[in-house]
Structure formats: C-alpha cells, structure tokens
Design goal:
Layout lengths: L1 H7 L2 H21 L3 H9 L5 H7 L1 H13 L4 H7 L1 H20 L2 H21 L10 H19 L3 H10 L4 H24 L6 H9 L1 H15 L4 H25 L1
Length: 255
C-alpha cells in the first residue's frame, strides 16, 4: 500500500506529509505524548486514512521507545500493565478487521469523533480516583479499546491514558507506562499488518523512514519546552486536536 503511494504521489504531497510529521514531532517533544492525535488528522488530509495509519505504525514504536526504557524497571512496568496488554490483543484483531471492512468515509467519521472526545475529556474532565480492586477489569477494557482504536485510527492511547491517570499515575511514572503500552501496541500492529495481504516488508521500511521527520520535530519540541510554559502549549495542542477532529468529520460527511 505505502509503496504504491510513494511511487504515484506528487512530490508536493510528499513534502506536505513530511512537514506534518515534523509538526507532530514538535508537539510530542513538548508534551511527551499525543503523536497520533496530531499526525493522523494532518497526514490524512493528503492521503487515505488507511495509508496514514500504516505510515504512522513505526513512528509510534520508535518515538516512544526511549521513554519506555527510561529509568529501568521495564519488567515491573510490563507486569503492572499486564491486564491492559492482555485486553489489547483481541482488541487489535477486531480493529484490523474493522479497518479492512469499514468504508473510508466511515473510518474518518469514527476517527474524528474519537479525536473530539479525547480532546474534550482532556480539557474538561475533572480528576478522579479508581479503586484498586477495579484496576484489573478496567485495565482489560481500556486495553481492548486501545487495541481497537490503534488498529482503526492509529490512536491506541486515549483510553489507556485515562486509565493510567485514574490509577493516580503522574509525571515520569505515567509517561513510562503510557510509552511502554504504545511501544507494545504499535509493534504488534506493525507486525500484524506486515504479515497480512495489505502490507509487506517494504511498507514497514517506508513507515520506519517516517521516524526521521518525527525525530527532528521532537528535538525541536524538547528545546521549545524548556523556554515556553508547558501549560500554554498543552492547551494549544488540545485546541489543534479538536480542530483536526472536526475537519475529519467534515470531510467524512461532505466527501
């Protein structure tokens, strides 16, 4: 799929996609998470949603790997995430099946709605605490939802982010568990698509090359983070998410 796009897409569109990936990397460098929420709406303005999802599969893995390994304790982190990861497996299979079957306009509509919901929750939802006895079942459900959204819209994180915040995680502990989940889920999705008839090793290589503009953007974003208040950037990012989600819905309805 990606091979066909690279060989037939005008150079101006390729440049626009690269710029979109750099911008998404800048925003991830500033706030630490949120790459697919920014990159997916921007990239899907220029190519089909399915192509955008496949293109982002490797950047999702490699951009989160340093944060997942930071500070050690990765084995313990995986153990704490086990309910989420177990739920993610069937969720990914369901999402991949939906991505193949669902019409592109419907997929855009669903993705746009998810982006709006995620952005709204991030802006307006008050903090809440989840009882410890509910961690396992809610973790499984959040992982299943993350698997579906990861396959359908390259956005595995929103439901899991909410679960981790509800457990009381903040700062580095939140970033580590969230990044570990994203590495595992995006890696599983990349392998699943590569082994299917809808993708091959060449697609995986093209997706891996998309890490370069994302990494450049992340370096820029990390430098900006040191001189500009993070709260201001966070609000700007959430506004951009809401606008992008609304644009996807508009395209789905009027295309």
């Amino acid at each position: 799929m990606l091979v066909d796009i690279v060989t037939t897409t005008p150079s101006s569109i390729v440049i626009a996609i690269v710029v979109s990936l750099v911008l998404a990397g800048v925003l991830k460098g500033i706030i630490g998470v949120g790459l697919p929420q920014i990159a997916l709406p921007l990239v899907s303005m220029f190519v089909d949603l399915r192509v955008a999802v496949m293109l982002l599969s490797m950047p999702l893995v490699l951009s989160n790997l340093p944060q997942a390994l930071e500070g050690g304790g990765t084995t313990q982190c995986l153990r704490r995430l086990s309910p989420v990861l177990i739920g993610m497996l069937p969720g990914t299979l369901v999402g991949v099946a939906m991505l193949v079957i669902v019409n592109a306009s419907v997929a855009k509509l669903l993705t746009g709605c998810v982006i709006l919901i995620v952005g709204s929750l991030s802006l307006f939802t008050p903090e809440f605490a989840l009882p410890s006895k509910a961690h396992t079942p809610i973790g499984f459900l959040s992982g299943f939802s993350g698997g579906v959204l990861g396959a359908l819209a390259a956005m595995p994180g929103p439901c899991v982010y909410t679960f981790l915040l509800a457990k009381g995680l903040r700062g580095k502990s939140f970033t580590k568990e969230a990044s570990t989940f994203l590495v595992v889920s995006a890696g599983l999705l990349a392998m699943r698509r590569t082994c299917s008839r809808h993708g091959d090793v060449r697609d995986l290589a093209i997706s891996a090359s998309a890490v370069v503009p994302v990494a450049i953007g992340m370096v820029i974003g990390q430098r900006l983070r040191d001189v500009v208040p993070a709260l201001i950037f966070r609000r700007l990012v959430l506004i951009a998410v809401l606008v992008s989600g609304a644009e996807l819905i508009r395209k789905a309805i009027f295309s």
